[in-house]
Design brief:
about 400 residues; Chitinase A, domain 3; globular; about 40% helix; 3-stranded antiparallel sheet; alpha+beta; 4-stranded antiparallel sheet; Triger factor/SurA peptide-binding fold; disordered C terminus
Length: about 400
């Protein structure tokens, strides 16, 4: 089954699609201070509070879980990387991790202050996850989440916070970032070397697995694949069909396979796709493990690419350049309008002058019942937008 998790949308129209504030910030000048929390015989843990954000808190456990998720993100993004490489990637992001958790709290609080309601979107997102993982019902989804060691309400609330965060960023920041056509043209003219490319195709896939199936089941799956192809050719969105019906590992990404040059694909597939134009699809291709449908999402002839083929790429790049500083300015204002405390020894790398930084007692002012924490790899882990510097 494919892995899927709540994901931030691509950023051309909303928030930047970046990884979660998902790891612990290390205190300034050395490792994290010793956690003074002790467990009693009833399994109650006294939490160390490392930051207060208005009426919300960030605990040492939040930071520990966040650090684990950051490392997991790095491993998933680079499966061939060594442990040392993964640690290097984590170390580069750690200085801003407490900042990102505070950012998240501030954005969610702003959404609630503005009475933003995303309940319908939460239901839709959960149903998308259900379909991506080929789960029969929402009740079965809840059971699988609970069985994994995660609390389903926590899982759902994480999705809600992500969507609230996205909506605030879209409403307050990204909707005000305008990229003019003249800017796109200027970038294209000023950077011609970026658009000199060999012949390439960008492919998406829908894969219907026949692994361990009987001949009768394989015949039915071939009909399923042909039905999906018929829907694409009738106008249905390829990416949506891939998300909901593909058995491939790319389903969570709308079937995105990547960009290929000649010589990087099997000869029989290469002969087909390099003759096709944008949005054309292959017939159903039978492989040893299933049935495959490929779509050419984009095709590049060798040489300087015409502006119309790279315009979206340039727009996204310029959007990111403009978006990040405006987002940081917005978050800086939220901090100035809020009550933020950070315990000495921990650093909010986006702290502003008005941020109140003082000792936060580590005495029993926050208690949590010990719960077994297991990484729910089947569904991935919750992601939230982070904010660049």
């Amino acid at each position: 089954m494919s892995s899927s998790a709540p994901q931030t949308s691509a950023a051309s129209a909303s928030a930047p699609d970046t990884a979660a504030p998902a790891a612990a910030a290390t205190p300034a000048g050395g490792p994290a201070p010793e956690d003074p929390a002790d467990a009693d015989t009833n399994g109650t843990v006294i939490e160390e509070i490392v930051a207060r954000v208005n009426d919300d808190i960030i605990t040492r456990s939040d930071l520990d879980r966040a650090r684990e998720e950051l490392a997991e993100d790095a491993r998933q993004a680079c499966p061939g990387c060594s442990a040392a490489d993964i640690q290097d990637q984590v170390a580069k992001k750690e200085p801003d991790l407490l900042r990102n958790l505070i950012d998240q709290r501030l954005l969610v609080q702003r959404a609630k202050d503005d009475d933003i309601n995303v309940d319908a979107d939460v239901v839709k997102k959960l149903d998308d996850i259900r379909q991506q993982n080929h789960i029969a019902s929402m009740e079965d989804l809840e059971t699988k989440v609970d069985d994994s060691g995660m609390d389903f309400e926590d899982y759902k609330n994480g999705i809600r916070d992500q969507l609230l965060t996205q909506e605030v960023i879209r409403k307050e920041v990204s909707s005000r970032v305008i990229i003019a056509q003249a800017d796109i043209q200027k970038y294209y003219t000023d950077h011609p070397d970026e658009f000199q490319r060999p012949e390439q195709v960008v492919l998406r896939e829908i894969f219907v697995s026949t692994d361990n199936k009987t001949p009768d089941e394989i015949a039915a799956l071939q009909k399923k694949a042909q039905g999906l192809l018929d829907r694409v050719r009738a106008g249905d969105d390829f990416g949506q069909l891939a998300t909901h019906f593909s058995d491939g590992s790319t389903a969570k990404d709308g079937g995105e396979l990547g960009t290929f040059e000649r010589g990087q694909l099997a000869p029989d597939i290469e002969d087909q796709v390099f003759k096709m134009n944008r949005n054309q699809t292959t017939d159903v291709i039978q492989t040893k493990t299933g049935f495959l449908i490929l779509q050419v999402e984009q095709r590049y002839e060798a040489g300087l690419q015409p502006l119309d083929k790279v315009s979206d790429e340039i727009e996204n790049k310029l959007f990111e350049v403009k978006m990040q500083p405006q987002l940081r300015d917005y978050l800086r204002q939220l901090r100035m309008d809020s009550y933020v405390q950070v315990k000495p020894g921990y650093v909010d790398s986006a702290a502003v002058v008005s941020t109140q930084i003082q000792e936060v007692s580590a005495t029993p002012d926050a208690t949590k019942k010990v719960k077994t924490q297991h990484k729910f790899l089947f569904f991935g882990h919750k992601k939230f937008p982070t904010q660049g510097t």
